Input
Amino acid sequence: MSRAPKSGFMLYGDPGSGNCLKPKWTADLLGIAHEWINVDVVKGETRQPEFLAINPAGQVPVARWPDGRVLPQSNAIMLYLAEGSRIIPESSFERAEALSWLFWEQYSHETAIAVRRYQKHYLKKPDTDIDPALSVKGNLALSVMEGRLKGRDWFVGNGLSVADIALVAYTRVAHEGGFDLAAYPSVDSWVLRTEDALGIQHARNPA
Ligand SMILES: N[C@@H](CCC(=O)N[C@@H](CS)C(=O)NCC(=O)O)C(=O)O
Output
């Protein structure tokens, strides 16, 4: 078994990116020491040669350890940091359920909600210039989440897990993409519950 430490890594990220915040929140929650290195996506810093030398895919987040290990992909970093902790379900079926939500998040949720938010909120595109399919796909994702959360507090099992962290990252800022969480009351209250469990600000009504 590897004895390489999890702590002491550099997390390259943009604070506006939910993908980058997932591993940061995980490390903060579990007390894993790290240093945040700001990379500005809108300014194109992910496409600069110095950054491409770290992650040739030109994307944040990336975690880099002093011994040379480099790990891209938000959910992979999160899973690595969380291994053996309380936010990875103990039962193998629930672990598989958590993974199932992580894969779904990257394919069916982030690709609509985060993309529409980026175009509307960061690129300031008018709604008429944004592909209407993003809104349809994003609302479908929110409906699936609403169905799952009816009568339960967390996506998997009885407590916060990596599935909640992955899914809350862009759901809590979905309004910036033009999505209305008032139409999804179970999702809306789960967002607040998850933000509280992570000890982070309420994105919709910051204190
Ligand atoms: N599947 C990847 C997605 C990473 C991603 O899309 N990163 C965006 C910011 S959220 C990025 O770095 N974009 C800059 C670029 O493509 O140049 C993950 O979960 O980490």
